[in-house]
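This section describes the prediction task in plain terms. A model, or a person checking by hand, is given the sequence of a single protein chain and must write out its three-dimensional structure as a string of tokens. No templates, partner chains or ligands are provided. The sample shown here is typical of the held-out split.
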Amino acid sequence: MKVLDLGHLEAQFGLIIREKENHDNYALLRFEDLHKVVEYYNSFKEEDKHD
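The expected answer:
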């Protein structure tokens, strides 16, 4: 992922998942990796069908 350098600022684009109690604990999901998140979610749905 390229970081957009704006001098004193920088930007990254994606979705952030963070803890409600500790906002310093977060993960940035890049848009190009969203298909991996969907595959991971679908694997749980498949496991649930088999139980």
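For orientation: The chain has a mean pLDDT of 82.
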